[in-house]
Write a structure and sequence with these properties.
The structure is a single chain. Helix content is 71%, strand content 0%. The chain has three domains: 65 residues, no CATH class; 65 residues; 127 residues. By secondary structure, the chain is mostly helical.
């Protein structure tokens, strides 16, 4: 099964479990399933379910403890702590050292994301690209590493022509995996808008509007800046009206701030 199918099967199992279990019994049943699982994808999903059950009961400390069992979460905590507590430490060196010594695939992917972010903050775009390409090579079926690289080319290097073939690969990966399809298509719409290929912007909008979702189809929310920042009359007005209605139906009434992609973390 792919990720959405695995997630949806576990989602159904959790919902069925709720019909016969509640409170401590529900949490214990999820814990017992986690203890039996060797598949890292199943483990990750179940940890998320467990954390949400603790949050629903108002026990945020238990939810935090559950999340800490996720290997990727541990990397984010380590990274954030190093940035906060040891600001003068060269994080690039520390991240590169952890990458050399890390064996867990999910932790490696998270470390590469952090390292690429550090390079981008320093304006080291070639180094950031190399890290993203290493992640693409390690995870060829995942759309997010490709989306990150396309975003680097578009938002940081102002090179939409170089971003286009990368985002086309990301869209293909997103459609195959069922993950971040809207994210890939919205990024493509911004790229082709920068290239003034407005017919391709309209095509991306139409593809977004035809997507259907299950709980396992993880993605970003609806974004309307791809419409709002188009020149007047640059696409078919029927498509523009349909996308406006689509955004409004999903509660998106104004465009996103693309500049946030370049903001430094505080």
């Amino acid at each position: 099964m792919n990720y959405p199918e695995t997630y949806n099967a576990l989602h159904r199992w959790r919902d069925e479990l709720r019909q016969t279990h509640a409170g401590d019994a529900l949490i214990q049943a999820i814990e017992e399933r986690i203890a039996r699982e060797a598949d890292p994808t199943v483990f990750e999903i179940l940890i998320g379910f467990l954390a949400r059950e603790h949050v629903a009961r108002g026990d945020r400390a238990a939810a935090e403890a559950a999340r800490r069992r996720d290997p990727a979460y541990e990397i984010h905590r380590w990274y954030d702590q190093r940035r906060r507590d040891v600001p003068d430490t060269d994080l690039v060196v520390a991240l590169e050292e952890r990458i050399r010594n890390e064996m867990d695939p999910r932790q490696l992917q998270t470390l590469r994301f952090c390292l690429a972010s550090e390079h981008k903050e320093r304006g080291n775009y070639a180094e950031a690209e190399a890290v993203h390409r290493a992640d693409i090579a390690a995870n060829p079926d995942e759309p997010m590493p490709l989306i990150f690289l396309a975003g680097l080319k578009l938002y940081y290097e102002d090179d939409p022509a170089a971003a286009l073939p990368i985002i086309d690969r990301a869209v293909d990966a997103a459609m195959r995996s069922g993950l971040f399809r809207r994210h890939a298509l919205a990024t493509k719409a911004r790229i082709v808008r920068a290239l003034q290929a407005y017919d391709m912007v309209a095509d991306a909008m139409q593809q977004i509007m035809t997507l259907t979702f299950t709980p396992g189809n993880h993605d970003i929310g609806v974004e309307r800046d791809i419409l709002d920042r188009l020149p007047p009359d640059s696409i078919d007005p029927e498509i523009a009206r349909a996308y406006d209605a689509y955004c409004r139906a999903h509660g998106e009434l104004r465009g996103a701030d693309e500049g946030s992609a370049k903001r430094k973390r505080k």
